[in-house]
């Protein structure tokens, strides 16, 4: 069996996926037409050609513009189900998906529309595709603490549908400490806590995510590798890192996939997982990430198996649920 076939056949969990980042240009055009929203592109090819980024902010500007076509419950349901179909084809058995409510509520789309649409798509994925899922509400870190607090309050009627909170968007200049109080409040509500850290931001931001936000899982974490004490802390605590190789390449977090830190992370005993982040923008779903990284750095089958096993170990599921998803 080839490595690519081996990867395709491995059951996996996806733990770092922004649902708005799974909006393929074809669906973007369909929703633009359905909702009579103007988009600044004439063709699907022109949209794809615009996906050429030199850093995180370049991408975020286009990503927030793309989300403009999402208006109705049906739109959010269609978006989610399209992602789950692709994920199921990659043998994803469980997905913990991020959504950015502020991107929608700030343009007048009610929180209820977003969550009802997404959870309808998740229910359909469970029955039609046998893919289970959970939702993680992300706060946009370029906005202020009060806006994050208001978003958490808006989520309160829906807490039974939300597994945790996360922190995403522009990292540098927006350290985790800015959100310590809202993360404390989310923890007191019984929510899991995750945060993007060390994607572009320094190791100090990773320390803050651990010590101030008390995260249960870390998104990216690449720049942790610059700090020996931090590596040891992550290894000793068994912290799961949700790493996204093709995202890192597209956003110039790494300049060459062959130099990606995953092999060193594994050697140092870190609990690494592979994920697609924003697959419609970064050129691939989860199996594309496994295949591209395996080819670029020469992963062994044992390492690939470890990465998939880590994805179930790091999931917010009970031991019994994990076994049932394999
Ligand atoms: C994101 Cl790759 C990445 N980093 C930070 N925030 C994000 N939102 C969507 N994708
Ligand atoms: Zn991300």
TrEMBL record:
UniProt EC number: 3.5.4.2
Cofactor note as given: Binds 1 zinc ion per subunit.
Q: Which Gene3D superfamilies match?
A: Metal-dependent hydrolases (3.20.20.140)
Give UniProt keywords alphabetically.
Hydrolase, Metal-binding, Nucleotide metabolism, Zinc
**Swiss-Prot/TrEMBL catalytic activity:** adenine + H2O + H(+) = hypoxanthine + NH4(+)
Q: Which family does it belong to?
A: Belongs to the metallo-dependent hydrolases superfamily. Adenosine and AMP deaminases family. Adenine deaminase type 2 subfamily.
- Per its database record, what is this protein's job? Catalyzes the hydrolytic deamination of adenine to hypoxanthine. Plays an important role in the purine salvage pathway and in nitrogen catabolism.
By what name is this protein known?
Adenine deaminase
Q: Native species of this protein?
A: Brevundimonas vitisensis
